[in-house]
Design brief:
The protein is of the alpha/beta class. It contains 6 helices and 11 strands. Bound molecules: pyridoxal-5'-phosphate.
């Protein structure tokens, strides 16, 4: 860490991205688990995710492609999951969407997760997120957000959520939706595309709970908000900085 400390950017919103990686290195052409691996850690300074403020994104629920299935690799942060998502993501981007909202690989009916984020929504007074069913990543931000929401006394359910339920809530104007992930922290969703239709969510605006979650997590990261669970640890002193 000391070697890399001069790479740590200091402007608000910027950070040092740390990506532990494992690749197979056996010199063999064939299908079997490798007998040798290389573990390395990539670190790189990254700019602020929200350069022009937090704007709600548009996501496309794909009824055409699937990314992961239960019993497969969806719960692992492995390159294969991302490879399977790239073509669908490119099509979504051409259609004006930021990312794909992946539905379950069997029925194409239940929400799994977004390209690089877990998905959460609030319908009425209940917060919902898909359960860790083996097909989605157990994101650390998802876990932190669920902890905060429960601390705040909100009703939270980790259960299968059908796309029809989400669309009905969007149409009824009772839906707030956001993604959770390390890079974006909290990303408000302002529009959902599905089967050629576009559904505006919360008037295309960032919802009150979405904003509160973002402010709280960033506050904990910067030491400006209380950190009751001890998630943050200051490295400055240990690095002598
Ligand atoms: C597929 C996928 N799901 C969810 C997440 C969010 O995980 P975390 O909150 O640990 O960053 C990521 C982030 O890397 C991701 O790539």
């Amino acid at each position: 860490m000391e070697i890399d400390q001069r790479w740590v950017p200091s402007k608000p919103g910027t950070s040092l991205y740390i990506r532990p990686t494992v690749i197979a290195t056996e010199t063999f052409l064939g299908v079997h688990p490798s007998h040798s691996y290389l573990f390395y850690v990539i670190v790189g300074p990254v700019g602020a995710y929200y350069k022009e403020g937090m704007n709600p994104v548009r996501i496309l629920a794909s009824d055409k492609y699937v990314r992961a299935v239960k019993g497969g690799l969806g719960a692992a942060k492995t390159a294969g999951n991302y490879a399977a998502s790239l073509y669908g993501a490119e099509e979504a981007q051409k259609a004006g969407y930021t990312q794909v909202l992946w539905l379950d690989g069997v029925e194409h009916k239940y929400l799994d997760e977004v390209g690089t984020m877990n998905i959460m929504l609030k319908i009425g007074d209940e917060v919902l997120t898909p359960p860790l069913n083996g097909a989605i990543l157990a994101g650390i931000t998802r876990d932190s957000v669920l902890t905060l929401l429960r601390d705040w006394g909100l009703k939270v359910s980790e259960r299968p959520i059908s796309i029809d339920e989400v669309i009905a809530a969007a149409q009824a104007g009772t839906l707030e939706m956001w993604g959770t992930g390390t890079a974006a922290v909290i990303s408000p969703v302002g529009e959902l595309g599905y089967k050629g239709e576009r559904y505006v969510i919360n008037g295309g605006q960032t919802g009150a709970l979405t904003q509160k979650l973002y402010d709280t997590i960033v506050g904990i990261q910067y030491g400006t908000a209380p950190d009751p669970h001890g998630w943050a640890s200051a490295l400055g002193n240990r690095l002598g900085g």
